[in-house]
Amino acid sequence: MKYYALIAYFVNYGLNIVFNIKKLKTGSFITKLLLTPILLLIYLTASEDLKIPVILALCFCFLGDLFLEFPKYFIPGLSAFLVGHIFYAVKFLSDITVISKLPWWMFLFTIVYIAYGITLNSRLSIPDLKKKTAVYIYTVIILIASFLSLLRFNSVSVYSFWIVLIGTLLFILSDSILAFNRFKKRSPYGSVCLMAAYGAAQLLIVLGILLE
To answer: CB-side exposure of 103: number of CA atoms within 13 Å?
Structure first.
């Protein structure tokens, strides 16, 4: 079942990219909403040690995918993704067992994350205070989640570490594209790049967790 689900994910992911290139809104909407349910199926059938935070993270990301399709539900959509990232962060934090043995220079990456967050938000033009506050809070949470995935170094397998870390970085990329598309300048290929990064990010995070 898990292999069929993985194949289904790649097919659905590929179709979503095609639909976005062709600007077929109904097809892209349906295939986007199928991404996290298929990933959840992969996780449920492949994991020998199911973790509630991972399940909840995928469920809230599904809600985020749904709400963000409708402009008036931007705040609920962003909030759903924020909760999803909190659950991912909880999972990554639970993986960290040897933080005292981490090289000191690894913590210098906090500077990189902070600098990126400040740069990203300073370049966005968000007139609505509620949306601006929501975006700022969301940025902090997603960067913390990615940093926690970095701190899994030496606590999980090498494959799991790198795959999850790359997944979280791709998630940051996809959300950055979303932010620029919505609050800066919309790119003609923005939705394609967004979904390419997002679909890969979610898949890598789940596969990386399975490889622990």
So the answer is: 6
